[in-house]
Amino acid sequence: MRIVLIFALLFAPPLNTKLGAQQKPAPLEEVKVVATTVLLGQLVQTIGGDAVDVDVLVKAGHDPHRVLPKASMLLRLKNADALIMMGLDYEHAFLPALLEKSRNKNLQDGGNGYENVGKRIAALEVPKSLDRSQGADLHPRGNPHYDLDPENVRIMAMAVREMLQKVDPGRSAQYQLRWTEWDQAAKQEIAIWKAYLKPIAGRNLIAYHNSWPYFAAAFQFKIAGFVEPKPGLRPSPRHLAELEKTMQQADVKVLLMESWVARSEASGLVKRSGCKAIIAPLLGASKQNRSYLTSMQALIEMVGVAHGLPTIQEFKRDAKEEQ
């Protein structure tokens, strides 16, 4: 009996001193991610680094409401490990049909690689009822242009981090570190932007399309009207004349325009009213590889300067001298 016990002890596997300890999962060779927008794609690249291969479905400067499904998009979805989308029906024109045809279980709602950021956002302008008389671009779950509030982009970045950690847990610490660095930088910049725009809080703006309620709420502006009489519909001469009167009464100095709208669409209104037309220099506005923080700062500065504020660089310098 004693010999048997000694033999068992000699050849028994070593005991794990940490109860419940599990072997760390090996990282994936590469994480293939499909992002629906340029901004989401860049956030994935920023947080994922060399570990990710990112494909973007809606290219720079394209109207997301007018994107058509393509065979090339379907192929990317079939081969992807993960999908991250804006949600709130932002991609309604093309994504649902492609997801169904892809038959990629990981990318279906509830799948391991599925991330719908809109589910994390406190949506604005959720309609109580819907009918076509309200316009061509309808969003039953609320306004989907939440990326114009930088606090919401912090939520988007967090969603990217959690998605990558779920799909590729072997690099969880790496994703956490890269996200932390980005988020800390974002918080610092947001504080500066809010202080910079504080002197013009409450001012009226107009916009071409209804993309701007989150921007207005974030920086305490008011949207006095839209060039489109209803979302997705082109303005009539009568509507533009009424809007011009509104601009004069509300002392509007800025017309905000989306990147996919040609400046010529509102050139007459701009000339007659004397306002400044600002085309959002955000991701998707051009082919330049600009970060979200850089692009948002450019937008904020243009709005500020149009209202008589100094540049942000001058604002930072003056604030430093006062300390």
Secondary-structure topology with pairs:
Layout: H1 2-11, E1 31-35, H2 38-48, E2 52-56, H3 71-79, E3 82-85, H4 95-102, E4 114-116, H5 150-167, H6 172-197, E5 204-207, H7 213-219, E6 222-226, H8 237-249, E7 254-257, H9 267-273, E8 276-279, H10 292-306, H11 312-322
Parallel strand pairs: 1-2, 1-3, 3-4, 5-6, 5-7, 7-8
Helix pairs in contact: 2-5, 3-4, 5-6, 6-10
Domain tally: 2
Second rung of CATH, namely the architecture of the largest domain: 3-Layer(aba) Sandwich
Number of strands: 8
Quick one: overall form?
globular
* Helix residue percentage: 40-55%
Give the biggest beta sheet: 4 strands, parallel
Beta-strand portion reads 5-15%
The CATH homologous superfamily of the largest domain is called: Nitrogenase molybdenum iron protein domain
The residue-averaged pLDDT reads 88
Key terms:
323 residues; alpha/beta; Rossmann fold; 8 strands; 42% helix
3D structure, described in words:
It is a single chain. With 323 residues, this protein is an alpha/beta fold. Helix content is 42%, strand content 11%. The chain has helices at residues 2-11, 38-48, 71-79, 95-102, 150-167, 172-197, 213-219, 237-249, 267-273, 292-306, 312-322, and strands spanning 31-35, 52-56, 82-85, 114-116, 204-207, 222-226, 254-257, 276-279. The chain has a 4-stranded parallel β-sheet with strand order 2-1-3-4, with helices on both faces. The longest helix is centred in the middle third of the chain and has 26 residues, at 172-197. Mean pLDDT is 88; it is low at 4-10 and 284-288.
